[in-house]
């Protein structure tokens, strides 16, 4: 009898210990204990199963630091940050916003009291005109019950938006090309600059592209542009194909440009910085007989992999496109 009482006493002590650990450790715990106690006549086994669910409570204040991915010593301000449920579409106007804040003095401070410990959230960063948008997930760890404020240990990195330098070199950005009296295929050469503007040296251009296109209101007819060749005269090799680019023009296919900055958080993207700069000569062969007065050839630089492409959170344009517009005149 005494042995049986000892078994149950030990069992109760173990049950209390399991409950204590579940409360202090947080999370969901399943504990099973088997006790074998020899008695005079038999051996008793007692199994204890206790499931403990730690509470998840809201924090009064959550702080998150924001720095440049190019130079983590420098804060990035003026961007907007939202905590969303995991899987939310960040640019959906009907999305559920758990909490939101603007970044000032390098920090976003969330005070809505709706961010819970032990939960994972989608973090939606709207960079506006300042930085490229970013979507990632973050987790608030389990914390002791007395903790009501939390600051993320690691800063969030974003890429400040740089601008292109002027594309035109020694010519106006808008060229009126007089082809009166010409017939058949003729050639003209133009010089362009691919570089980051001196006004935005601390930023980068995400997925830069070279675009060869015509205007939408008075387009060149098919076959009007016969050949286009790009030759690097100096500077960075941006990877422009050393082939006839007339097919890129015909289909308005963006030509991806290389960049020197590789970001481990976004390895599939290319980032062009102030370290990247080159001058290219563009040789254009055109059929003067098929071109009408006022039709245009546009040589452009843009970001985000396409002409007038928009970012994933803000749905906004980022680096302003640079255009060299050649208007054929007869």
What would you note in describing this structure?
The chain is mainly beta and 330 residues long. It folds into three domains: 2-53, no CATH class; 58-158, Immunoglobulin-like, CATH 2.60.40.1120; 174-329, Immunoglobulin-like (Sandwich), CATH 2.60.40. 9% of the residues lie in helices and 40% in strands. The protein has helices spanning 2-25, 246-251, and strands at residues 28-38, 43-53, 58-59, 61-68, 80-84, 99-104, 107-110, 115-116, 120-126, 134-139, 149-151, 156-158, 174-178, 185-195, 205-206, 209-214, 225-235, 255-256, 271-272, 277-287, 296-302, 322-329. The strands form six sheets. Strands 4, 5, 6, 7, 9, 10, 11 and 12 form an eight-stranded mixed sheet that branches. A hairpin with a 4-residue loop joins strand 1 (28-38) and strand 2 (43-53). The chain is elongated. 28% of the residues are buried. The model is unreliable at 1-38 and 45-53 (pLDDT under 50).
């Amino acid at each position: 009898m005494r042995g049986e009482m000892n078994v149950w006493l030990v069992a109760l002590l173990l049950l209390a210990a399991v409950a204590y650990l579940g409360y202090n450790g947080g999370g969901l715990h399943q504990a099973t204990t088997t006790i074998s106690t020899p008695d005079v006549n038999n051996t008793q086994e007692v199994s204890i199963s206790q499931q403990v669910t730690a509470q998840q409570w809201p924090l009064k204040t959550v702080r998150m630091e924001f720095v440049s991915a190019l130079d983590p010593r420098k804060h990035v301000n003026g961007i907007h940050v939202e905590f969303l449920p995991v899987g939310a579409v960040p640019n959906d106007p009907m999305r559920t916003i758990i909490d939101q804040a603007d970044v000032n003095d390098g920090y976003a401070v969330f005070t809505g009291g709706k961010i819970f410990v032990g939960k994972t959230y989608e973090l939606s960063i709207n960079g506006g005109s300042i930085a490229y948008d970013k979507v990632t997930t973050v987790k608030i760890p389990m914390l002791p019950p007395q903790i009501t404020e939390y600051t993320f240990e690691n800063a969030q990195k974003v890429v400040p938006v740089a601008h292109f330098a002027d594309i035109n070199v020694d010519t106006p950005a808008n060229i009126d090309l007089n082809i009166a009296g010409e017939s058949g295929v003729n050639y003209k050469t133009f010089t362009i600059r691919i570089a980051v503007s001196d006004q935005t040296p601390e930023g980068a251009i995400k997925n830069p592209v070279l675009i060869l296109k015509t205007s939408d209101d008075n387009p060149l007819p098919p076959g009007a542009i016969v050949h286009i060749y790009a030759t690097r005269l100096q500077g960075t090799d941006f990877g422009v194909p050393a082939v006839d680019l007339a097919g890129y023009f015909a289909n308005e296919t963006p030509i991806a440009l290389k960049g020197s900055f590789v970001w481990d958080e976004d390895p599939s993207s290319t980032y062009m910085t102030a370290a990247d700069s080159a001058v290219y000569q563009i040789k254009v062969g055109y059929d003067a007989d098929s071109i009408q007065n006022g039709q245009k050839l546009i040589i452009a630089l843009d970001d985000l992999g396409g002409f007038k492409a928009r970012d994933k959170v803000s749905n906004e344009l980022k680096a302003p496109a640079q255009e060299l517009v050649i208007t054929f005149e007869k």
